[in-house]
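User: Second chain of the day. Same drill as before.
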Amino acid sequence: MSDAVAALVAALCAAAGLPAARGFEPFGHGMSGDVTLRIEGERSVFAKVADPARRISRESLAREIAALRWLDGRAGAPRLIWAGETLGRPAMLTEALAGTALHDLTSDRAEAGLIAGIAALRALHSRSIDDCPLDQRLAVKLSEAWRRVEQCEVGRSEFDPDNTGRSPEDLWETMLAERPDAEDLVFTHGDASLPNFILRGEGAAGVVDLGLAGVSDRYQDFALFLRSSAHNFPGVDAGALLRAHYPLAALDERKLTFYRRLDEFY
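Assistant: Same format as last time:
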């Protein structure tokens, strides 16, 4: 591994007042561009370091830090150990959640893993939002989405197959035509894809990567959880599991479609 990453790990440990690391492992998923590391020492910690030159990266990390402080280890979230700046880069350290990300489960464990993920969503959604400082209501989400269109920050090459070849502007018009009339507000994960749920030894799922967390419609999470489940485990009826274990009498397909389209801008 590069000397630059080793220097970054040393600086993180020093800034957080932790003993020198015995080892570290870079890893990651998604498209944020952040540096993510598991650092091994007296205890395992997870590090995320934002790209200071990238607005989305800085703002996402700041929101994740705020979400972790607000949750304070509840609802399956890891505890925040330290947040600040090191080597000129915004960063944070959290406790590392031991377990297996849901997308890495074998097919025979998929159904149990998805049920655990649904339970984690229920725990997040049950938090009172009265004092939540993170606003991800639709007006905020749409404002940020359009800003990304204007600043050419939308990754059109990463659109879902049913949107491939479309321009962000064209997709924007389609999405606005599908906008729901009302929002069913809860505290949401914001990016409820399977890699962001960790199945732990006791069978419960923890949650990570909370850079889009905040008060939003619960369908923000339903849409991405079901899309990710279909991609990773097409043989499992995740919709039926969600209806049975959330529980829901039915799923609003129009809202699922809307929030999947909205996510194309993120």
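The mean pLDDT is 94.

User: Great, on to the next one.
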